[in-house]
Amino acid sequence: MSETAVAAPSDAGLKASLTIAYGLFLLGVFNGITAVAGVILVYVRRDDARGTIWEGHCRSLIRTFWIGVAVVTVFLLAVMQGAFGLLFSLAQTDGNPPPQVVSAFLFLVPALYLGAVLFVVWYLYRVVRGLLRALESRPA
Fold first, then answer.
1. What are the domain boundaries of the chain?
2. pLDDT digit string, tens, across residues 8-39
């Protein structure tokens, strides 16, 4: 199936809105807040995009946002559990935690770092690929 669909001239506003949303998502890598603004913009323009090539872009951005929220939530819960577990153990043992607690925490740090790197690579791939396709007026 050929992907030679081009946008209608009336879709220029949608293209501009989604390009801005992609830019906000890219900035969201550094602060997270702009991704929230980007997804709000996408939700506002989603009804206008129905039946156009931009509908897939809206769906992709919304999915990327909510998967990102889920991943960041799991990441933060794991960090909090590890940190509070270690702090609790330090408090209960007068600064001499059992080796199992220390080794579990030392395993958690690189595992979470690798997970964060993989997530950022996935996130950037989806956003940059979508932005490039949007700039070319191609479906997501």
1. 10-135
2. 545 888 999 999 999 999 999 999 899 999 99
**Please, are residues 17 and 134 in contact by the beta-carbon 8 Å criterion?**
no
Which string of b and e fits 31-53 if b means at least 16 CB within 10 Å? Answer: eeebbeebbebbeebbebbeebb
Q: What are the structure tokens assigned to 73, written together?
A: 């939530």
Written as six digits, the tokens of 9 are 């001239």
Burial of 104 per CB tally in 10 Å (0-12, 13-18, 19+): middle
CA distances from 79 to 1, 3, 70, 76, 113 (A): 45, 43, 14, 5, 11
C-alpha span between 89 and 83 (Å, rounded): 10
